[in-house]
Amino acid sequence: MPNLNGATSTWLFNSVWVQFYDNYCENGSADQLLSSWNQWITVAANQVFLSRPAATGVAGSGYTSPDVLIAQVRPTFKESSKYGGVMLWNRYFDSGYSTAIKSDV
Predict the structure, then answer these.
(1) Is residue 100 predicted with pLDDT exceeding 90?
(2) Going by C-beta distance under 8 Å and a sequence separation of 6 or more, which residues neighbour residue 57?
(3) Contact criterion met (CB below 8 Å) for 48 and 10
(4) Reduced to 3 states, what is the DSSP secondary structure of residue 9?
(5) Which pTM was predicted?
(6) Distance of CA 29 to CAs 13, 16, 34, 98, Å?
(7) Based on CB atoms within 10 Å of each CB, which residue in 38, 50, 64, 77 is the most buried?
(8) How many CB atoms lie within 10 A of CB 50?
(9) Within a 10 A sphere around the Cβ of 48, how many other Cβ atoms?
(10) pLDDT per residue over 19-59, tens digit each?
(11) Which of 57, 52, 91, 94 is nearest to 73 (CA)?
């Protein structure tokens, strides 16, 4: 969480929406995503939402298939009381990702 430690330690945020792609948070690996998630759930906020690319062409890096998200990532997220949900970027390019994960997230 570069340059955010001061702000995210104040409890002024109810929810934090984190872009887990195209940055240090994830490189396409479920292990890297989970490592970043474990850092973000330490912030002083009630909920952390996971922002993901809805298709491979939407982001330069960090795309994870719905199957991997559900099988390898979601179980860890669901263990956290801070898990708020998933946001997809960009709805325009969503050709089934949201449908595939809706009942599991």
Answers:
(1) yes
(2) 93
(3) no
(4) helix
(5) 0.86
(6) 28, 22, 9, 20
(7) 50
(8) 26
(9) 22
(10) 999 988 887 788 888 999 999 999 999 999 999 999 988 88
(11) 52
Tokens of 41: 């759930």
Collapsed DSSP state (helix, strand, coil) of residue 72:
helix
The total number of residues shown for the chain amounts to: 105
Contact 9, 49 (CB under 8 A): no
Residue 1 is predicted with a pLDDT of 59
DSSP type of residue 23: B
The closest alpha carbon to 85, from 60, 50, 55, 57, belongs to: 50
Pairwise CA distance, residues 89 & 39, whole Å: 22
- Phi/psi for 20 (5° steps) reads -95, 50
Is 73:35 a contact under the CB 8 Å cutoff? no
Tell me, what amino acid is at 32? Q
Tokens 């909920």 label which residue? 47
Q: Cis peptide leading into 90, omega within 30 of 0? A: yes
